[in-house]
Amino acid sequence: MILVADSGSSQSDWMLALPDGERLAFTTKGLNPFFVNEKDIAKIIQNAQEIVPYADRVSEVYFFGSGCTSPDRREMVSNALSQLFTNAFISVETDLVGAAYATCGDRKGYIATLGTGSDVSFFDGHEVLPTRQGLGYVLGDEGSGVWFGKQLVTKFLYGVMPADLSAEFYAKYRINKEIIIKNVYQRASPNAYLASLALFMGAHADHPFIDELLITGFREFIVTNIKPFPDHRDYICHFVGSIAFYFIEQLREVCEQQDVKIGKVLRRPIAELFNYIVQREKNYEIQA
Length: 288
Prior knowledge:
By secondary structure, the protein is α/β, with parallel strands linked by helices. The protein has helices spanning 38-46, 71-82, 95-103, 136-139, 145-157, 163-173, 177-185, 190-197, 208-225, 242-246, 248-257, 270-287; strands at residues 2-7, 11-17, 23-29, 60-65, 89-94, 109-114, 118-123, 128-129, 237-240, 262-266. Strands 3-2-1-4-5 form a 5-stranded mixed sheet, sandwiched between helices. Strands 8-7-6-9-10 form a 5-stranded mixed sheet, with helices on both faces. Helix 5 (145-157) packs across helix 8. The two termini are 18 Å apart.
């Protein structure tokens, strides 16, 4: 039985190939090893009641997650997974690798993540090549949920958000400076907290202020993360993540202005990723 996971900082999507050919899909909290330790990762997985009955029958686990960028981080996740899936081969890769498989398949192309965080990389048809991008929510994450959340909250606190939006923003979140400081500087997962504030844009995407904010954020992402690649016009750029998916109108506008060719835009890549992994492993078995 093959289990595939696509994990961001806020949420992890899982899909299991059952013996009868059906799929079991479920979600857990995000398992970014920069924000949760091995013990917490293991606990979250073991509390996922959907998978527990099948745990000893899972033979392969393919985990693709944000924060899995170094051998020690990947080992942390692998060790946590092995505590439940004791009979399984376990592979841990970055979420960009998963996004590449889900969008590019075996073809060359750029893959951009616009979800809680943001990142971009080039897939050469075999592997995701390293880049200078992906600096995280403190130094980077342009055009992400975190970036937009920071913009919204700072403009609200500084009093430069339009009065009508400001009133609705306060009514929805009931926040002030003290609450923001506590959640950002004193509590766990500040990136997920900031990204949650970006949900406000969904109901107000047609407001001129929000529309301009989206245009600005996407432009900053593309100018900073995609245009530095001299061959970016030669390949399609696929996008993965809720920010790209829900605000595709503004994203398309900016990509057209910046001469970036858009390919697939997926909210969550788990279904396409699962299909790719299962098909790949079947082919391996046939070749063997």
